[in-house]
Design goal:
The complex is a heterodimer of chains A (253) and B (308). Chain A is mostly helical. Chain B is of the alpha/beta class. In chain B, the strands form three sheets. Chain B has a six-stranded mixed sheet with strand order 6-7-8-3-9-10, with helices on both faces. In chain B, strand 12 and strand 13 form a beta hairpin. The longest helix of chain B is centred in the middle third of the chain and has 16 residues. Classes of the chains: A mainly alpha (253), B alpha/beta (308). The interface between A and B is medium-sized, with 27 and 32 residues.
């Protein structure tokens, strides 16, 4: 295991993040805070409690999850796409480093950033609404697993994309709508029965539901299923990444 | 001298059916400067990139100091520094950060003193805190060399190191390559400038359409394939080579104003004296003479022509 190399990639990626603090931390925190002010404080005060949880608090896990999904994917995809775009990837590919170590460096850094952002949002939210966390261990477990899974997805997108447009397509056109419809702002129990069944096809429902359970012990689907879905998706992403490196897809001719 | 890189039966075919390498066999000797010459698209970069792990070979094997580049890629790659043809740099990084990063991903612990030596050697020390995007093309090229040297490689690949570099910088680059060799580093370079190979290389390999057509010591190559010519300017032009002189390898040029005699400079008797005597007997007056030895460039052009 070439830990020095993993560390070099990890620190390089974290430094890149540090250089663009305004864009990488301030912007997502600001936009999420706006959601709190609009949906939590302004509109939320007129919305009845959901399963005994005030609406302002109810949306916190959803917003954290939405931020986690979009930031993990965009961060990780950019992290690997940019060296491909500039050509500096040659150095990574010709270094004495295994594909696992490459992924560990890039995905580890992207996941770390998302987890930090998620925690910042949590602290920010606690300034607006009272938050309690019923199962801190599971909260952290869902947070880390989801950050890892979607950073892996981002890594895959960054390798698949052959232009900056494609880099944006999946986060904007798939992840964003699915997380909006996945119960960020509501319980899917509020939907008509037909749409409840449709919502169950949305994988993000399971992520948000499990995460919300770790806070308030309320959930749309059972926690076991949520956890299994999260781990299942993680394994799927790992399998795709393994295939990418085995075949050299878009990396080696 | 022992081989540090052994390439055997290496082929590379692309999905399109294009065969970039057609069974390359090549040995690079420890400590030499090896120049790989060939026209555009001959497979120079493909060969280098395959050895460095950027291209998956279709068949064949490569060992670097005894380590197979696929089975034992860590040991093989740890010995190699690569300077690519394209100026691919992390534009927003500083010189210091990018060179230190290169050292890190090769698994070497930080060594500021060594990085400083490399940067000073390449005249980059006063630019160490500059962002790469602010540097000129020649400096970026040197940053890439510094990156390749950051992990103290034993083998350095330079893919077109002086393309688009001005004359002064090119000479500076040659200086660096010589220093590398003195430090015991094996250098493999590809170049378009045959003058460069002539100036630098110990041995020369010529690649054409994915095949190595010649590998030879530079001096030997120039001696074997080079010709020496003696041009004799005549007092009065003639219409044809006189009958008494047809046994000599002579060509009539410049509308009959000059004769060119091609001879082997290594031979014990080159035949110049007898030729001159024969010419006097034939009544030809020589007003001027000049000799010319083929350059590597002419040899190269000849090789390309003969091979096609």
């Amino acid at each position: 295991m070439n830990l020095t190399a993993v560390r070099a990639i990890y620190l390089f990626e974290m430094a890149r993040w540090g250089r663009t603090l305004l864009q990488s931390i301030v912007a997502p925190v600001l936009s999420t805070s706006l959601y709190f002010i609009v949906f939590g404080a302004a509109i939320g005060s007129r919305v009845p409690d959901i399963d005994g949880v005030s609406y302002g608090a109810f949306i916190v896990p959803g917003l954290m999850m939405m931020l986690l999904l979009t930031e993990s994917t965009s961060n990780a995809s950019f992290g690997i796409y940019f060296p491909r775009f500039t050509g500096t990837i040659y150095e990574i590919l010709s270094a004495p480093i295994s594909s696992f170590e490459i992924v560990l460096g890039y995905v580890g850094a992207a996941a770390t950033k998302s987890v930090i952002l998620g925690l910042i949002i949590l602290v920010t939210a606690s300034l607006f609404v009272p938050i309690r966390i019923a199962h801190p261990f599971w909260m952290v477990a869902f947070l880390v697993l989801t950050a890892l899974t979607f950073s892996l997805l981002g890594f895959i997108i960054g390798i698949w994309a052959d232009g900056f447009e494609k880099l944006q397509v999946i986060p904007m056109l798939i992840i964003m709508p699915l997380s909006f419809l996945g119960g960020t702002f509501y319980s899917i129990g509020m939907l008509p029965p037909f749409w409840q069944n449709v919502a169950l096809l949305n994988p993000i429902v399971y992520l948000i539901s499990g995460f919300r359970w770790s806070f308030f012990e309320i959930s749309d689907v059972s926690v076991g299923i949520s956890f299994a879905m999260t781990v299942g998706f993680l394994i799927l992403c790992l399998a795709i990444v393994w295939w990418i490196f085995r075949t050299g897809y878009r990396l080696k001719p | 001298m022992s081989a540090i890189i052994t390439v055997s039966g290496l082929t590379k075919s692309y999905a399109s059916g294009f065969q970039a390498l057609k069974g390359i066999d090549l040995e690079i000797r420890r400590g030499e400067i090896f120049a790989l010459l060939g026209p555009n698209g001959a497979g120079k970069t493909t060969l280098i990139n395959t050895i460095c792990g950027l291209v998956n070979p279709s068949s064949g094997a490569v060992t670097v100091d005894g380590h197979d580049i696929i089975r034992d890629y860590r040991a093989a790659r740890a010995l190699i520094g690569l300077v690519p043809q394209e100026l691919s740099t992390d534009m927003f990084e500083t010189v210091w950060a990018t060179v230190s990063f290169s050292r890190g991903i090769h698994g070497k612990s930080a060594n500021p003193a060594y990085v400083e030596t490399v940067l000073r050697q390449l005249s980059l020390w006063d630019k160490k805190d500059s962002k790469i995007l602010t540097l000129s093309g020649g400096m970026k090229r040197r940053v890439l060399i510094a990156k390749a040297l950051a992990h103290e490689p034993r083998i350095l690949f330079l893919d077109e190191p002086t393309a688009g570099v001005d004359v002064e910088l090119r000479r500076g680059m040659w200086q660096v390559v010589r220093q590398m060799r003195e430090a015991g580093v094996t250098v493999i370079l590809t170049t378009h400038y045959i003058e460069e190979a002539e100036e630098m290389a110990d041995r020369i390999g010529v690649i054409r359409s994915g095949e190595i057509i010649v590998v030879e010591e530079k001096a030997e190559l120039m001696r074997k394939l080079g010709k020496k010519e003696l041009k004799l300017r005549l007092g009065t032009p003639i219409a044809a080579v006189p009958g008494a002189l047809v046994s000599y390898p002579l060509a009539l040029v410049d509308d009959g104003h000059a004769l060119v005699f091609t001879y082997d400079a290594r031979a014990e008797r080159m035949g110049i004296t007898t030729l001159l005597n024969a010419m006097r007997d034939a009544g030809l007056v020589v007003t001027d003479l000049e000799t010319h030895q083929s350059s590597l460039e002419e040899i190269f052009v000849d090789l390309m022509r003969h091979a096609s």
